[in-house]
Amino acid sequence: MLHITLPPEMTRPAVRQVFAALEAAGGAGCVRFVGGCVRDMIMGRAPGDFDLSTQLTPDETEAALSAASIRHVPTGKAFGTITALVGGEPFEITSLREDVETDGRRAVVSYTTDWTRDAQRRDFYLNALYADVRGEVFDPTGQGLADARAGRVRFIGDAETRIREDYLRILRFFRFSASHGSTLDEPSLNACVALKAGIDGLSGERLQQELFKLLGVADPAAVVRRMIETGVMPHVLGGLHVKASVFSAAIALTTDVIQRLIALIDGDGLVAETFPDVAQRLRLPNRVADRLTQAAAAYPEARIATGEATLRRGLYRHGRQALSDALSLRAAEAGLTAKEWQRFDASLRMIDVPIFPLKSSRLIAAGLKAGPELGQALRRIEADWVAHDFSSIVIEAAIDDIAKRTNI
Fold first, then answer.
1. Where are the domains of the chain?
2. Ramachandran region, residue 51 (left: φ > 0; alpha: ψ -120 to 50; beta: rest)
């Protein structure tokens, strides 16, 4: 057991209020911080996700919070989780559990008061750390502290057993290796590769969440490369085989998760035909799927070495987001440095997106009648206006010509 001075975020009044409420019912030490916040504190990082574990059952947790007049909601009571709300701030409180039955996607659990049994059902040693509000750190597996200090991500016990309990742990292994690991643990990696087909049975929503978290890591390039090389990534992307080279270059250019996803699924150029399968596999929200499709539409005419007039036309045809997404991929393909891309992207943001100023009412006033001819004239004038770098002279000349032909 280790005693440390907790950072202010872990001893603020809202936290102490929740601890006091639970300990009033279950005694001192019946509730502890668990997982991420303890791990990050040990690793010298700013703690977040202040999740709590308790020896109290969910019913006892609710009763303890009610007795202390703390508002709470049964957000995951079926899985042992009650969320306390103090001043609008949520605290997830989960009762200690042990697995009774697992099928690779979900587990049947029973409640326990044994911290070691709860720790043994977790995924990695460095995530099986606990701390109380007084600064006592607990390491029931005896290996969590050492792994956290070393930046070592390893499955608890037998790696294949842990993975078979929930195949999403394969993605979690790669994600935590990218965010908290100094290297990939070979035994854990080998188990992930051996059981990678289990990913196929996971829901798209769960895969999407983990993949986006991985893409949001500061530099996931090396880990993603191993996922590609070992054949894990196709199971995530619905069978799509991808390359690592462009993705690795994109990591240095952008922190935008969607732009990183675009770079990941780029093969030899961005093609919209690959998107429906990926969107369906990952259950992508419509706004994300649309963004991929729009980037693919802008990609053919997106060029880094181009003039302002060409960029302005691209902005008009495709919009700022789609063109920026396509150009970020082009920049990665061209091997631009981060500074070069930042300068280019800044110049792109300085260019206003033109707005076609001509209304059909002006053409009617010039003598055209409402109908197909009017729409054709608008489209023809717009195309000429775009081709001449959005010059108003083109519009005025066209209106004059219409007026002469209709004798107005």
1. 1-152, 154-236, 241-354, 360-405
2. beta
Encode burial over 225-239: b for 16+ CB neighbours within 10 A, e otherwise.
bbbbebebbbbbbbe
Q: Read off the amino acid at residue 344.
A: F
Q: Is the pLDDT of residue 367 over 90?
A: no
CATH topology assigned to domain 154-236: cca-adding enzyme, domain 2 (1.10.3090)
Neighbour count for residue 85 (Cβ, 10 Å): 15
The closest of 248, 238, 301 to 270, measured between CA atoms, is 301
Q: Are 99 and 109 in contact (CB under 8 A)?
A: yes
For residue 135, pLDDT over 60 is answered with: yes
Which pLDDT belongs to residue 100?
66
Of the candidates 327, 326, 388, the one whose C-alpha atom is nearest the C-alpha of residue 356 is 388
**Segment 143-199, tens digit of pLDDT:** 999 999 999 999 999 999 999 999 999 999 999 999 999 999 999 999 999 999 999
Give all strands of the β-sheet with 136-138 in edge-to-edge order.
2-3, 136-138, 130-131, 31-34, 52-54, 89-95, 81-86, 71-76
Distance CA 318, CA 339 (A): 25
**346 token code pair:** 């800044």
CB contact at 8 A, 374 and 368: yes
Chain segment 23-68, per-residue pLDDT in tens: 999 999 999 999 899 999 999 998 878 899 999 999 999 999 999 9
Within 30-145, strands assigned E span 31-34, 52-54, 71-76, 81-86, 89-95, 97-102, 107-111, 130-131, 136-138
Helices (H), 8-52: 13-26, 36-42
Class of domain 1-152: alpha beta
Q: Is-same-fold flag (154-236; 241-354)?
A: no
Provide the pairing of β-strand 52-54 with 89-95: parallel
Structure tokens at 287: 């706004």
CATH class assigned to 241-354 = mainly alpha
Q: Check: CB of residue 154 under 8 Å from CB of residue 185.
A: yes
What is the average per-residue pLDDT within 196-207?
Answer: 96
pTM confidence score: 0.87
* Residue 31, beta-bridge partner list: 54
